[in-house]
Write a structure and sequence with these properties.
Largest sheet: 7 strands, parallel
Radius of gyration: 19 Å
Helix content: 25-40%
Distance between the termini: 42 Å
Mean pLDDT: 94
Low-confidence stretches: none
Shape: globular
Order of helices and strands: EHEHEHEHEEHEEEEEHEHEHHEHH
Length: 297
């Protein structure tokens, strides 16, 4: 009998983490997923994912589960309290549990650490220029990439769409958008992103960061217009001036207004990864139908 490789995933009930857990299970792994309550745990068990009850705030509850895994994936984001401090503390707990066993740790960062790319297409070699909202991630990335005695890998996803929604979901309604629509958002479907995690576990190089994004270069205005057409919403989209958005959203407004173009050439070259989805504009009608079905369920 062949024993299954085990992966432990924080954030296994979230948008990214749940789909990553599914991808690892499809690939034949035994998947342990962190869940904060019994209801969420039951949902994981129904998908052949072994639930581990606990929270990021109490690593003692999941330390043994993490120590049993060959692959550790940190995909959780907790907005209660200091999000970035908790994020780093969780990574440190994972490092402490894995450092003596040569495990693989995959940390979920994001393309926002690259800041505004000012019309240029950047890759992992570009100097980081993070916006205020995610600036602490740079040091957390360094902890993972420089960790001794294990294979530390960082994934920098583009803005994720598909399945349970993501930041693009409000575009299918009358929700106004910060900025003027001339900026670019790099995007990736959550299925394609989940595939990249499995590939990182199996092929990724220690100490490497990988941008994961499709090759689309549409502006937010073009993306939003596609969503409105698919949703059957007439008229032009509503926009919020950035100064006003900052008053109501704080630093998050600057994230939404970033103009970014990125390249996933390294992931394509080293991991054999390719975005299989046709892109947000082409798939907007499918996404709109899924959003309607969830609302009616």
């Amino acid at each position: 009998m062949t024993s299954l490789r085990t992966v432990f995933i924080t954030g296994a009930t979230g948008h990214i983490g749940r789909n990553v857990a599914r991808a690892f299970r499809r690939a034949g792994y035994r998947v342990l997923g962190l869940a904060r309550d019994a209801a969420k745990a039951s949902g994981l068990a129904a998908e052949e994912i072994v639930p581990v009850l606990g929270t990021l705030q109490q690593p003692a509850a999941w330390r043994a589960a993490a120590a049993s895994a060959e692959v550790l994936v940190h995909a959780a984001v907790d907005y209660a309290g200091d999000t970035m401090a908790l994020d780093r503390a969780a990574v440190q707990a994972l490092l402490q549990g894995a450092a003596t066993r040569g495990a693989t740790l995959i940390y979920t960062s994001g393309v926002w650490v690259h800041g505004d790319t000012a019309g240029r297409v950047v890759d992992e070699t570009a100097p980081l220029a993070p916006i205020e909202l995610v600036a602490p991630r740079v040091e957390t990335e360094r902890l993972v990439l420089g960790a001794p005695a294990l294979r530390g890998i960082v994934i920098r996803p583009a803005i994720v769409y598909g399945r349970q929604g993501g930041l693009t979901a409000p575009w299918f309604g009358e929700h106004p958008v910060a900025g003027d629509g001339r900026n670019h958002w790099p995007l990736v479907h959550v299925d394609d992103l989940a595939d990249a995690y499995v590939r990182c576990a199996e092929r990724g190089s220690a100490g490497s960061a990988y941008i994961v994004a499709d090759r689309s270069r549409a502006t937010v205005g073009e993306l939003r217009a596609a969503a409105r057409r698919a949703a059957g919403i007439g008229g032009g989209p509503g926009w919020i001036a950035l100064a006003e958005a900052r008053r109501t959203m704080g630093p998050f407004a600057d994230a939404l207004a970033l103009d970014q173009q990125v390249s996933a050439a390294r992931a394509e070259r080293e991991l054999g990864w390719r975005a299989r989805h046709a892109g947000f504009v082409a798939e907007a009608p499918i996404l709109a139908a899924a959003i309607r079905a969830r609302a009616e369920a």
